[in-house]
Amino acid sequence: MVNPIGKLPPLNGLRAFEVSARHLNFRLAAEELGVTQGAVAQHVRGLEAELGLALFERLPKSLALTGEGRAYIADIRRAFELIANATTKLRPQPVKLTVSTTPTFASKWLIPRLPDFRAKHPDLDLHILATDRISSFQSDGVDLAIRYGNPPFGTALAAELLFDQEIIPVCNPSLIAIGAEPHDGKALSQYTLLHDTHNFWPEYIDRFLGFSDPALFRSISFSQTSHAIEAAIAGQGIAMATLAFVSADIRAGRLRQVFDGVLLAQSGFYCVRPRYRKSDAVDKLQDWMTSQP
Fold it and tell me: Most buried pick, 19, 39, 43, 90, via CB within 10 A?
Protein backbone atom coordinates (compact mmCIF):
# COMPACT_ATOMS: atom_id res chain seq x y z
CA MET A 1 0.00 0.00 0.00
CA VAL A 2 1.33 3.43 -0.95
CA ASN A 3 1.83 5.67 2.04
CA PRO A 4 -0.32 8.81 1.89
CA ILE A 5 1.49 12.08 1.25
CA GLY A 6 1.68 14.24 4.34
CA LYS A 7 0.12 17.67 4.51
CA LEU A 8 1.67 19.97 1.90
CA PRO A 9 2.05 23.73 2.22
CA PRO A 10 0.11 25.82 -0.31
CA LEU A 11 1.54 25.18 -3.80
CA ASN A 12 0.99 28.78 -4.89
CA GLY A 13 3.06 29.85 -1.93
CA LEU A 14 5.85 27.41 -2.83
CA ARG A 15 5.93 28.67 -6.43
CA ALA A 16 6.00 32.31 -5.30
CA PHE A 17 8.80 31.47 -2.87
CA GLU A 18 10.91 29.69 -5.50
CA VAL A 19 10.63 32.51 -8.05
CA SER A 20 11.22 35.20 -5.41
CA ALA A 21 14.29 33.32 -4.16
CA ARG A 22 15.76 33.40 -7.67
CA HIS A 23 15.16 37.10 -8.18
CA LEU A 24 15.41 38.24 -4.53
CA ASN A 25 12.76 40.74 -5.53
CA PHE A 26 8.96 40.50 -5.31
CA ARG A 27 8.44 42.84 -8.29
CA LEU A 28 10.59 40.74 -10.65
CA ALA A 29 8.97 37.56 -9.36
CA ALA A 30 5.54 39.06 -10.09
CA GLU A 31 6.61 39.88 -13.67
CA GLU A 32 7.70 36.29 -14.26
CA LEU A 33 4.52 34.82 -12.77
CA GLY A 34 2.21 37.32 -14.46
CA VAL A 35 0.56 38.46 -11.22
CA THR A 36 0.77 41.54 -9.05
CA GLN A 37 3.63 42.21 -6.66
CA GLY A 38 1.13 42.25 -3.80
CA ALA A 39 -0.10 38.77 -4.73
CA VAL A 40 3.43 37.35 -4.65
CA ALA A 41 4.15 38.95 -1.29
CA GLN A 42 0.85 37.62 0.07
CA HIS A 43 1.59 34.06 -1.10
CA VAL A 44 5.03 34.17 0.53
CA ARG A 45 3.60 35.53 3.79
CA GLY A 46 1.00 32.74 3.76
CA LEU A 47 3.73 30.14 3.29
CA GLU A 48 5.81 31.63 6.11
CA ALA A 49 2.74 31.59 8.36
CA GLU A 50 2.10 27.95 7.47
CA LEU A 51 5.70 27.03 8.29
CA GLY A 52 5.92 29.25 11.35
CA LEU A 53 9.22 30.87 10.32
CA ALA A 54 10.60 33.62 8.10
CA LEU A 55 12.05 32.65 4.73
CA PHE A 56 13.18 36.14 3.67
CA GLU A 57 14.65 39.20 5.24
CA ARG A 58 12.82 42.20 3.81
CA LEU A 59 15.41 44.80 2.86
CA PRO A 60 14.62 48.34 1.59
CA LYS A 61 15.02 47.46 -2.13
CA SER A 62 15.48 43.70 -2.21
CA LEU A 63 15.15 40.43 -0.33
CA ALA A 64 17.66 38.15 1.38
CA LEU A 65 17.11 34.51 2.23
CA THR A 66 17.24 33.58 5.89
CA GLY A 67 19.20 30.50 6.94
CA GLU A 68 16.00 28.51 6.95
CA GLY A 69 15.08 29.94 3.56
CA ARG A 70 18.42 28.88 2.02
CA ALA A 71 18.02 25.34 3.32
CA TYR A 72 14.40 25.12 2.21
CA ILE A 73 14.87 26.47 -1.33
CA ALA A 74 17.39 23.76 -2.26
CA ASP A 75 14.88 21.00 -1.54
CA ILE A 76 11.95 22.89 -3.07
CA ARG A 77 13.86 23.37 -6.34
CA ARG A 78 14.68 19.66 -6.49
CA ALA A 79 11.01 18.88 -5.93
CA PHE A 80 9.93 21.20 -8.73
CA GLU A 81 12.54 19.63 -11.05
CA LEU A 82 11.16 16.17 -10.29
CA ILE A 83 7.62 17.34 -11.07
CA ALA A 84 8.77 18.99 -14.31
CA ASN A 85 10.70 15.89 -15.41
CA ALA A 86 7.79 13.58 -14.61
CA THR A 87 5.44 15.81 -16.61
CA THR A 88 7.81 15.91 -19.59
CA LYS A 89 7.98 12.11 -19.67
CA LEU A 90 4.19 11.94 -19.95
CA ARG A 91 4.07 14.17 -23.00
CA PRO A 92 4.71 12.69 -26.45
CA GLN A 93 8.20 13.59 -27.62
CA PRO A 94 8.81 14.62 -31.23
CA VAL A 95 10.39 11.97 -33.43
CA LYS A 96 13.83 13.11 -34.57
CA LEU A 97 14.89 12.39 -38.15
CA THR A 98 18.26 13.06 -39.77
CA VAL A 99 18.19 14.06 -43.43
CA SER A 100 21.40 14.01 -45.46
CA THR A 101 21.49 16.49 -48.35
CA THR A 102 23.91 18.55 -50.39
CA PRO A 103 24.38 22.15 -49.19
CA THR A 104 22.68 23.51 -52.31
CA PHE A 105 19.66 21.21 -51.97
CA ALA A 106 19.33 22.20 -48.32
CA SER A 107 19.52 25.97 -48.90
CA LYS A 108 17.64 26.25 -52.21
CA TRP A 109 14.99 23.50 -51.94
CA LEU A 110 14.50 22.09 -48.47
CA ILE A 111 14.85 25.07 -46.12
CA PRO A 112 12.35 27.32 -47.97
CA ARG A 113 9.76 24.52 -47.69
CA LEU A 114 10.29 23.73 -44.00
CA PRO A 115 7.42 25.94 -42.74
CA ASP A 116 5.00 23.77 -44.73
CA PHE A 117 6.57 20.59 -43.32
CA ARG A 118 6.41 21.90 -39.73
CA ALA A 119 2.76 22.86 -40.18
CA LYS A 120 1.82 19.42 -41.51
CA HIS A 121 4.07 17.33 -39.23
CA PRO A 122 4.62 19.11 -35.89
CA ASP A 123 5.42 15.72 -34.34
CA LEU A 124 8.61 15.34 -36.41
CA ASP A 125 11.90 17.14 -35.71
CA LEU A 126 14.46 17.33 -38.52
CA HIS A 127 18.23 17.41 -38.28
CA ILE A 128 19.61 18.50 -41.66
CA LEU A 129 23.08 17.14 -42.40
CA ALA A 130 24.24 19.26 -45.34
CA THR A 131 27.49 18.03 -46.82
CA ASP A 132 28.96 17.11 -50.20
CA ARG A 133 30.34 13.84 -48.88
CA ILE A 134 28.13 10.75 -48.91
CA SER A 135 26.90 10.28 -45.35
CA SER A 136 26.45 6.84 -43.82
CA PHE A 137 23.03 5.59 -42.78
CA GLN A 138 24.71 3.69 -39.95
CA SER A 139 27.61 5.72 -38.56
CA ASP A 140 26.02 9.14 -39.24
CA GLY A 141 22.57 8.06 -38.08
CA VAL A 142 20.94 9.13 -41.36
CA ASP A 143 17.25 8.24 -41.81
CA LEU A 144 16.72 9.64 -45.31
CA ALA A 145 19.25 10.89 -47.87
CA ILE A 146 18.80 13.05 -50.93
CA ARG A 147 21.25 11.73 -53.49
CA TYR A 148 22.17 13.12 -56.90
CA GLY A 149 22.78 10.44 -59.51
CA ASN A 150 21.08 7.37 -60.91
CA PRO A 151 19.89 4.27 -59.06
CA PRO A 152 20.73 1.74 -57.92
CA PHE A 153 22.68 3.40 -55.11
CA GLY A 154 23.23 0.08 -53.34
CA THR A 155 21.53 -3.28 -53.07
CA ALA A 156 20.31 -2.52 -49.55
CA LEU A 157 18.95 0.92 -50.47
CA ALA A 158 15.56 1.91 -51.89
CA ALA A 159 15.38 5.01 -54.10
CA GLU A 160 12.44 7.14 -55.26
CA LEU A 161 12.81 9.94 -57.81
CA LEU A 162 12.24 13.36 -56.27
CA PHE A 163 12.76 15.39 -59.43
CA ASP A 164 14.68 15.30 -62.69
CA GLN A 165 17.35 17.91 -63.19
CA GLU A 166 16.19 20.56 -65.66
CA ILE A 167 19.07 22.99 -66.23
CA ILE A 168 18.44 26.56 -67.35
CA PRO A 169 20.59 29.71 -67.64
CA VAL A 170 19.54 32.46 -65.23
CA CYS A 171 20.62 35.98 -64.36
CA ASN A 172 19.42 39.04 -62.52
CA PRO A 173 16.73 40.73 -64.64
CA SER A 174 18.68 43.99 -64.44
CA LEU A 175 21.71 42.36 -66.10
CA ILE A 176 19.94 41.34 -69.32
CA ALA A 177 16.56 42.82 -70.17
CA ILE A 178 13.90 40.77 -71.95
CA GLY A 179 14.51 41.08 -75.66
CA ALA A 180 18.19 41.93 -75.20
CA GLU A 181 19.51 38.38 -74.90
CA PRO A 182 22.91 37.78 -76.59
CA HIS A 183 22.43 35.92 -79.87
CA ASP A 184 26.03 35.25 -80.85
CA GLY A 185 29.33 34.41 -79.21
CA LYS A 186 30.59 37.98 -79.34
CA ALA A 187 27.54 39.29 -77.51
CA LEU A 188 27.65 36.51 -74.91
CA SER A 189 31.35 37.19 -74.30
CA GLN A 190 30.34 40.54 -72.77
CA TYR A 191 28.90 38.63 -69.79
CA THR A 192 30.56 36.49 -67.16
CA LEU A 193 29.56 32.81 -67.13
CA LEU A 194 29.14 31.46 -63.61
CA HIS A 195 30.24 27.82 -63.25
CA ASP A 196 29.82 25.20 -60.55
CA THR A 197 31.41 21.76 -60.26
CA HIS A 198 28.83 20.26 -62.67
CA ASN A 199 29.94 22.67 -65.44
CA PHE A 200 26.86 22.46 -67.68
CA TRP A 201 27.83 25.51 -69.75
CA PRO A 202 29.80 23.68 -72.50
CA GLU A 203 26.97 21.22 -73.18
CA TYR A 204 24.32 23.94 -73.09
CA ILE A 205 26.21 26.23 -75.49
CA ASP A 206 26.88 23.37 -77.88
CA ARG A 207 23.29 22.10 -77.88
CA PHE A 208 21.22 25.29 -77.82
CA LEU A 209 23.39 28.24 -78.80
CA GLY A 210 25.93 26.96 -81.27
CA PHE A 211 28.47 29.52 -80.17
CA SER A 212 32.23 29.17 -80.22
CA ASP A 213 34.36 27.41 -77.61
CA PRO A 214 32.94 28.31 -74.15
CA ALA A 215 36.49 28.37 -72.79
CA LEU A 216 36.88 31.72 -74.57
CA PHE A 217 34.23 33.36 -72.39
CA ARG A 218 34.90 35.12 -69.11
CA SER A 219 34.00 32.93 -66.14
CA ILE A 220 33.92 32.54 -62.38
CA SER A 221 33.85 29.05 -60.85
CA PHE A 222 32.28 28.03 -57.55
CA SER A 223 32.52 24.81 -55.55
CA GLN A 224 28.85 25.13 -54.53
CA THR A 225 25.95 25.56 -56.95
CA SER A 226 24.17 27.75 -54.40
CA HIS A 227 27.08 30.22 -54.54
CA ALA A 228 26.81 30.47 -58.33
CA ILE A 229 23.07 31.12 -57.95
CA GLU A 230 23.68 33.83 -55.34
CA ALA A 231 26.27 35.43 -57.64
CA ALA A 232 23.67 35.49 -60.43
CA ILE A 233 21.12 37.08 -58.09
CA ALA A 234 23.74 39.71 -57.27
CA GLY A 235 24.08 40.53 -60.98
CA GLN A 236 27.60 39.14 -61.39
CA GLY A 237 26.87 36.97 -64.42
CA ILE A 238 24.79 34.14 -65.87
CA ALA A 239 24.55 30.84 -63.99
CA MET A 240 23.44 27.39 -65.11
CA ALA A 241 21.04 26.20 -62.42
CA THR A 242 18.58 23.42 -61.69
CA LEU A 243 15.07 24.78 -62.25
CA ALA A 244 13.86 23.37 -58.92
CA PHE A 245 16.52 25.41 -57.11
CA VAL A 246 15.71 28.75 -58.75
CA SER A 247 11.96 28.61 -59.37
CA ALA A 248 11.22 30.62 -56.21
CA ASP A 249 13.80 33.24 -57.19
CA ILE A 250 12.26 33.48 -60.67
CA ARG A 251 8.76 33.92 -59.24
CA ALA A 252 10.07 36.60 -56.88
CA GLY A 253 11.77 38.48 -59.71
CA ARG A 254 15.30 37.94 -58.41
CA LEU A 255 16.24 35.88 -61.47
CA ARG A 256 15.03 35.35 -65.02
CA GLN A 257 15.68 32.60 -67.54
CA VAL A 258 17.97 34.02 -70.23
CA PHE A 259 17.58 31.46 -73.07
CA ASP A 260 14.61 29.20 -73.80
CA GLY A 261 16.47 25.88 -74.01
CA VAL A 262 16.14 23.47 -71.07
CA LEU A 263 18.93 20.94 -70.61
CA LEU A 264 17.77 17.66 -69.07
CA ALA A 265 20.68 16.28 -67.07
CA GLN A 266 21.39 12.56 -67.10
CA SER A 267 21.11 12.38 -63.30
CA GLY A 268 18.26 13.30 -60.97
CA PHE A 269 17.65 13.85 -57.28
CA TYR A 270 16.40 10.80 -55.35
CA CYS A 271 15.10 10.05 -51.88
CA VAL A 272 17.25 7.16 -50.65
CA ARG A 273 16.76 5.05 -47.51
CA PRO A 274 17.66 1.60 -46.16
CA ARG A 275 15.37 -0.88 -47.90
CA TYR A 276 14.54 -2.98 -44.86
CA ARG A 277 14.36 -0.25 -42.19
CA LYS A 278 10.65 0.38 -41.66
CA SER A 279 9.61 3.76 -40.21
CA ASP A 280 6.26 5.56 -40.33
CA ALA A 281 8.07 8.84 -39.61
CA VAL A 282 10.42 8.42 -42.59
CA ASP A 283 7.40 7.47 -44.74
CA LYS A 284 5.73 10.77 -43.79
CA LEU A 285 8.87 12.76 -44.58
CA GLN A 286 9.40 11.07 -47.94
CA ASP A 287 5.73 11.39 -48.91
CA TRP A 288 5.86 15.11 -48.07
CA MET A 289 9.01 15.62 -50.13
CA THR A 290 7.69 13.84 -53.21
CA SER A 291 4.41 15.78 -53.02
CA GLN A 292 6.14 19.17 -53.20
CA PRO A 293 5.69 21.19 -56.39
Answer: 43
Question: How far is 66 from 58, CA to CA, in rounded Å?
Answer: 10
Amino acid at 106: A
What's the pLDDT at 215?
63
pLDDT of residue 213: 62
Fold of 11-90: Arc Repressor Mutant, subunit A (1.10.10)
Across the range 10-16, mean pLDDT stands at 92
Q: Kindly compute the dihedral angle of the four CA atoms of residues 21, 22, 25, 27, in this order, to the nearest 10 degrees.
A: -120
pTM value?
A: 0.68
Cα gap 160→176, rounded to integer Å: 38
What are φ and ψ of residue 274, in 5° steps?
-60, 130
Q: Please name every residue paired with 148 in a beta bridge, in sequence order, or none if there are none.
A: 269
Q: Is the pLDDT of residue 12 over 80?
A: yes
Domain spanning 95-165+267-291, CATH architecture: 3-Layer(aba) Sandwich (3.40)
Burial class of residue 60, CB neighbours in 10 A (0-12, 13-18, 19+): exposed
Q: Are 262 and 167 in contact (CB under 8 A)?
A: yes
